[in-house]
Amino acid sequence: MSRLHVSLPGLNMKNPILPASGCFGFGKEYAKWYDLSVLGGITIKAATLEGRFGNPTPRVAETESGMLNAIGLQNPGVTKILENEIPHLEPYHIPILANIAGSTEEEYIEVTKQISAHPLVSAVELNISCPNVKEGGIQFGTHYQSAADLTRKVKEVSEKPVYVKLSPNVSDIVEMAIAVEDAGADGLSMINTLVGMKLDWRTGLPILANKTGGLSGPAIKPVAIRMIYEVSKRVSIPIIGMGGVATAEDVLEMMSAGASAVAVGTANFVNPYVCPEIIEKLPELLDQIGMEHISELIGRSTKEWKTPLSSR
Amino acid sequence: MRKHELTITSNDEIAHRIYEMKLNGPGVKGMTTPGKFLHVSIGKHSSKLLRRPISICDVDFEKEEVTLLYRAHGDGTIQLSQKQNGERLDILGPLGNGFSVETTPKKKNALLVGGGIGVPPLYYLGKQLKDQGVNVTFVIGFHSRKDSFYVEKFSELGETAVTTVDGTLGTKGFVTDAMEPFMCTESMIYSVGPAVMLKAVEQKAAGLDGYLSLEERMGCGIGACFACVCPTESKESGYVKICSDGPVFKMGEVVL
Mean pLDDT for chain A? Predict the structure, then answer.
């Protein structure tokens, strides 16, 4: 096995890098820039039962070292995704993490049933943390009980491992992580975007038509690191870390915080080649710190800390 | 796909907050189609991460030089305006679908209508149309005289009418107030500007053929992030992505 290989439930990855959901479409566009088979995996854009048009424009606003987006889960619906999008990824032979969203429990369950049955889908990522839709999404991700209930129900019907994508917009993300782990989640994806807002100083009005949006980019990386650090100490399921990762150094930091794999989001917009460039640089960084295998990084930050067994 | 570094050879304020930047490098060779845009990075060390989509205004293939006009409006473009000659910029592009001068049905006359910072790509388009023997006429609109640019350069290519909202230059009013005399059934319309202007142009030019180029805040610039969508009735999906399906669309194709 190569020194970058990592293995998570359903995701056997030759390196720990995958694009984050919503930042890479269904891969078609970036496939014009490079060969996607270099990736450790791919997270595809959220699927809902019916097609959704999303929010009015403007949908993005730039902020210091980051950006706000309010796309609103635009997607053609699960049937078309299964027919027209996922088959395009077959030639790359990389694990596919399929992001799932909905307005109701029933919608999440139906989408999970359909998408997890596809032979090319390796695992599903339960999106209970999208801040940009009126119904569903974050509603499920901010109440422990509804998050746990939904996880349990989705887990019952899913043919593939289930990762729950957590929202940072909660008072205690550790409690949320524990709740979904207890409900049967196979892994966690964290973090989704932080809810934010930007006004045009000339008019005093919000830039985004949706008024608020999800903050992403390097600005949120310290928040992600802190949350992954705290959660990884308290759960035993693996974490796909994300939030502002833009460099190979960021990947090492996030894995040290406790992530077993790392998703790259906003940085793809800045540099379409960012994922292959990061992957190429990882061995050099491992050499610099005298580490043989990338998995040795996972949770380094917590090593001196003894987690009390009674803490759960 | 193309990502390259180009060297700044000039970067001057040519009107109020309007900058003309010239960039040099082998990457310029592929910039043959007017209406396409470059996705310009402000620089690795800027806290402004996202690229700025800026339309190609002119290309000099002998010098391997591309001209971009932009308005220093926000922090990112203000930082761009402070760049010095010799600095290098990281560019993606040319991106998008531009005005296809060669494949569009030939008409004797072309009316090119632009507003504000939407005006620049019409210069490159006008030059190419003129080279093909098309009689080009321009109607370009600005807020005020101090915001106006390239009036003489456009006049060298063809008859040029200017409008300003405050009446300090040319006709007082909007571009649509000055279009009428130049429109005939033989005219092909090309227009670039804010959606509200394009909508008015489309109404004014009802019955004529033409192309519109849309402006929108973009994320990736390559069709992956769904930031810059626009509704359409001509596609089953109900939308187009301005960055990758456009920014140029046939008149009537999108819902403005």
Answer: 94
Q: CA A228, CA B225: separation in Å to the nearest integer?
A: 26
Query: Does residue A37 come out as left (phi exceeding 0), alpha (psi in the -120 to 50 range) or beta?
Result: alpha
Domain with CATH 3.40.50.80 in chain B: 109-215
Residue pair B251/B205 in contact by the 8 Å Cβ criterion: yes
Q: Which of A33, A34, A208, A269 to substitute to test the interface with B, most B CBs within 10 Å?
A: A269
Q: Write the pLDDT tens digit of every residue in A35-78.
A: 999 999 999 999 999 999 999 999 999 999 999 999 999 999 99
**Domain B109-215 belongs to what topology?**
Rossmann fold (3.40.50)
Q: What pLDDT digit, counting tens, does each position of B126-148 carry?
A: 999 999 999 999 999 999 999 99
How many residues are present in chain B? 256
Residue B123 contacts residue B153 (beta carbons within 8 Å): yes
Pairwise CA distance, residues A196 & A215, whole Å: 6
Name the minimum distance, in Å, from the CA of B250 to any CA of chain A: 21
Distance CA A66, CA B221 (A): 16
Q: How far is B45 from chain A (nearest CA, A)?
A: 10
| CATH number belonging to the domain at B3-95, selected among 2.40.30.10, 3.40.630.30, 3.40.50.460, 1.10.1740.10 | 2.40.30.10
Angle (CA) B249 B252 B256, round 5°: 85
